[in-house]
Design a protein that fits this description.
With about 400 residues, this protein is α+β, with helices and mostly antiparallel strands. The protein is about 35% helix and about 25% strand. The strands form three sheets. A nine-stranded mixed beta sheet has the order 1-5-6-12-11-10-7-9-8, with helices on both faces. A five-stranded mixed beta sheet has the order 14-13-15-16-17, with helices on one face. It has a three-stranded antiparallel beta sheet with strand order 2-4-3. Helix 6 packs antiparallel against helix 7 and helix 6 runs antiparallel to helix 8.
Length: about 400
Amino acid sequence: MKIQRCRGFRDLAPEEMSNFRLIETAFRDCCLKWGYHEVRTPTLEYLYLFTATGTLTPDRLNRVYSFLDWDGWSGERVVLRPDGTIPVTRLYIESMAEQGRTKLFYVTNVFVFEETGQKSRERWQCGAELIGVNQAMADVELLALALNVLQSLGLNGIKVRLSHAGLVRAILAKFELDPAEQARIFDQFLDGDTEALAHLKSDKPELMEALTLLLDMKGRSSGFLKNIKALFSQKLPEFEAPLNNFIAITELIQALGYDCQIDLVSGKGFEYYTGVIFQLFMGVELVGGGGRYDDLIPLMGGRDTPAAGFALYLDGLMKLVKPETSAEPISKRILVRVVPEVTKEGFSVASRLREVGYIAELALGGEKTDSYGFILEVQSKAPKFILNDKANGAKSRVESAAEVLALLGSR
C-alpha cells in the first residue's frame, strides 16, 4: 500500500511552517495591541449548532464532515467545524455572555468537503470577533485591524470591497416570500447570481427597479450611496436604515484614508450576515473578509446581542508572504561543536546562547555549515572556545562562555 496523505489535505514543511508562524505571530501581536483576547474552541461541535438555527446554507451543510459520536447508549451527530465564527459564538453564549462587550481572536482550521480533492478540505484562518457593540465604528475597527495585520506582513495595496446584507434583506422582505425561499434568493444574490431576479414577481415596479439597481450597484464613495438614497428614500422607507448605516461606515473608512469599492453582489460565503460585509483582495487573491452578524447570537439561543468579525485566510496569505521575510537570519544561527570530554560545557554554552536570542544547534554530524553565521568549537584543552565568524572568516579564541557572549555582542 502506498503511504500518502488524505486527498484534499496538505502537509506543511519547515519553510511553510515558518511562513505560517510569521503570519500567526503578526496577527496575534496586532490583536493583543488592539485589546482582543485569544480563545480556542474544540475541533468537534454538535451538528445541531449549525442546522437548528439555519446558520449554514443547505449547500454548505452538504459539505461538512459529520459522524455519530457514541456516548453511552445514544449518540449525537458531530461535525469537524466548518466555520470559525459559530464555535466562538457558542463559546460566548455558554461561558462569556455576562461580560457584555467582548473582543476575541483565534487561529483555527475549518473543514469543508470538496468532491474532487483538488481544493483544500482543511483551511486555516485567523479570526477576530467584536461582540456586544452595534456601531459603525466597531465595523470600521475590525476592517482597520485586518488591514493593520496585512500591512505588518508587508502586504500593501490591499483592495477593500464593501457590500451590505441589510440592503438586500430589506428589499427581499417586501416580496412576501416564505423564509426558505427568501434565504435561498438572498444567498444567490450574495454569490453574484443575478438570474435569481427571474424567480421574483411583484406588482410593484419600484421593488424590481430597486433590486435591479442594487445588483448593479458599484461605486467608490459615500457620495455614491447618498445618490442611491436620494432615489429611493421616499419609495422604499425600509431601505433608509441600512443605507444610512452603510453611508456612515463608508464615511469613516474614507476618513481613515482607506480606498474601497462598493459592490453589493460580493458577499459569497457570508450567509448569516446582516449588515456591512467587507472582502480583502491582494491582486486577485481573496485574503480575508468579514462583517456584521447581529442575528447570529439570538438564533443560537443567546440574548439579543450585536456582533461583527472577520477572518484572514492563512492558505492564501502563505502564498503572498515571501519566504525570505520569515526565515531566521543566518547571523543568529550558531553551530556548536563539542568534543565528548566537555559535553556538559557544550550544552551549557548552547543554553546561554539561546537565552540571549541565538539559535544554538549542537553538531551531530552532516550539518551544512553555510546555514550558520558562526561555528563555535568547544574543546577540552586551551583555548576552551574557538568562535569562527562565517561572514568574514575571523577566528577568536577565548577561555569562557562569558567571553563568547561578549564577542558576539560586539558584532
